[in-house]
Amino acid sequence: MKRLFIIVSLFFLATSAYATHMRAGEITYKWINTSSDPNNPTYLTYEITIVTYTYTPSLADRPEYDISWGDGTTSTIYRNEKINLPDSISRNTYIGQHTFPGPYTYIISLEDPNRNGGVFNIPNSINVPFYIQ
Q: Which of 21, 40, 56, 87 maximizes the CB count within 10 A of its CB?
């Protein structure tokens, strides 16, 4: 019986280590226009920076993300930097560029299914995807 309890306990610990990691994040953008001519395709080029904070020991590490640009397209951006901080937290930085098809208001977004468990204001947070825009 004691052996069964230990095996079941280890299973639950291992499952939680695989499943959760996402703590916080933000998306910032910068206009990187290379032309003053609105008819030039690079006129609507932006650089985005995504910073996420994750639980370092988790095996659900993300070296890349698929980003929705808000214009019906997506692309993969790759991690530029990972800094391990105190208390088992990592700061991850991803940078990408995109040229939009025309002037409009676009919502850039990222979704990750591995939100942290135990978030006080999100009931059953481990089953709610992490989303930023």
A: 21
Tell me how far apart the alpha carbons of residues 36 and 54 are, in angstroms, rounded to a whole number. Answer: 39
- pLDDT for 18: 44
Q: Tens digits of per-residue pLDDT, 48-77?
A: 999 999 998 888 889 999 999 999 999 999
Structure tokens at 118: 């135990």
β-strand 110-112 against 89-99: which pairing, if any? unpaired
What does pTM read for this prediction?
0.78
Q: Which segments of 7-129 are extended strands (E)? A: 22-31, 45-55, 64-68, 74-85, 89-99, 110-112
**Alpha carbon distance 31, 68 (integer Å):** 17
Give the up-direction half-sphere exposure of residue 49: CA atoms within 13 A in the CB hemisphere: 11
Going by their DSSP bridges, the two strands 74-85 and 22-31 should be labelled as unpaired
∠ CA 45-81-58, nearest 5°, is 120
Length of the chain: 133
- 98, two tokens: 């995109």
Give residue for tokens 């204001």: 121
